[in-house]
Amino acid sequence: MNDQADTPRRPSIAVPLVDGMTLFEIGMPLEALGYDWDPGAPPLYEVTLCGDMRGVRTHTGARLHPQRPLSALSAADTVLVPAVPPGRSVGAPLVRHLRAAAERGARIAALCTGTFALAEAGLLDGRRATTHWRHAPLLQRMYPAVEVDARAIYLEDNGIFTSAGSAAGLDLCLHLIRRDHGERAANTIARNLVIAAHRDGDQAQYVHAEPLDEAATWLDELRTWLRGQLRRTITLADLSQAANTSPRTLARRFDRDIGTTPMRWVAAERLAAARELLETTDFTIDRIAAEAGFGSPVTFRSVFTQDVGISPSRYRAKFATAGQRIRS
């Protein structure tokens, strides 16, 4: 038996490198997408650094040596561009290969100011896109055909994905994992990276910088409480009582620390719970609708399909974990 032939092909992600990129953003796809976070299982993706084989110099002066030339972008399932120096051309070779990859139908994504590279290639004309809030005005001035959203932490527009600055790139990486491999896989990697498992793309990207452990503690405690209450209607008063604070203070804290409202967070948690139940149980759709607190199966199907892009049944068929489901 040929074991290699029996091994499913992992989706490929090409990460193009050019001079002046930051090590932080280059490392994000390598850590979040290309690392084996689940013991005994291979990484979810085959991630390859592509660029000038003579080496590229990062913004700190460190040199990196790509594994493949830029031409390898043409064969990748996804091309993910890390942050580039804003306002400076990424060069004709990268522009050419980005266009070729897009024309071939590859998924295109950019982290932080990597959005400038996509804009230079003309891939964002007429599309919504985001970038680091500090550089959003420059992006809009340089590329007026792009609809720049300076607040979103990540966006998708017709198969092209962009993220806000710095750590928001991890949110986009988790979003891609969630789309490709499901909620459970994204949650596993988020726990290992010690980051929030799910932030909506349209949450504000510049939130108050409370110490991570403090912000994570109060939210995790509230999430634990909420997961035991999802079957019933949850009000702002319920949340504030569980958090031992006033509704006004809780709303301010969500806006300051999370960049969203308490009730939008509850809605996102209901969807996350439903995704996980679809992946890990054989519960009926009606039961999952009840367990996650959607009120009715009709409402659940409508909300889920609008948010996720496919029906609950199709989601289960795509992401259910064979042999590991909890039976009703």
UniProtKB/TrEMBL annotation:
<dbReference type="InterPro" id="IPR018062">
    <property type="entry name" value="HTH_AraC-typ_CS"/>
</dbReference>
<dbReference type="Pfam" id="PF01965">
    <property type="entry name" value="DJ-1_PfpI"/>
</dbReference>
<protein>
    <submittedName>
        <fullName>Helix-turn-helix domain-containing protein</fullName>
    </submittedName>
</protein>
<keyword id="KW-0805">Transcription regulation</keyword>
<dbReference type="GO" id="GO:0043565">
    <property type="term" value="F:sequence-specific DNA binding"/>
</dbReference>
<dbReference type="InterPro" id="IPR018060">
    <property type="entry name" value="HTH_AraC"/>
</dbReference>
<dbReference type="InterPro" id="IPR052158">
    <property type="entry name" value="INH-QAR"/>
</dbReference>
<dbReference type="Pfam" id="PF12833">
    <property type="entry name" value="HTH_18"/>
</dbReference>
<dbReference type="InterPro" id="IPR009057">
    <property type="entry name" value="Homeodomain-like_sf"/>
</dbReference>
<feature type="domain" description="HTH araC/xylS-type">
    <location>
        <begin position="220"/>
        <end position="318"/>
    </location>
</feature>
<keyword id="KW-0238">DNA-binding</keyword>
<dbReference type="InterPro" id="IPR002818">
    <property type="entry name" value="DJ-1/PfpI"/>
</dbReference>
<dbReference type="InterPro" id="IPR029062">
    <property type="entry name" value="Class_I_gatase-like"/>
</dbReference>
<dbReference type="GO" id="GO:0003700">
    <property type="term" value="F:DNA-binding transcription factor activity"/>
</dbReference>
<keyword id="KW-0804">Transcription</keyword>
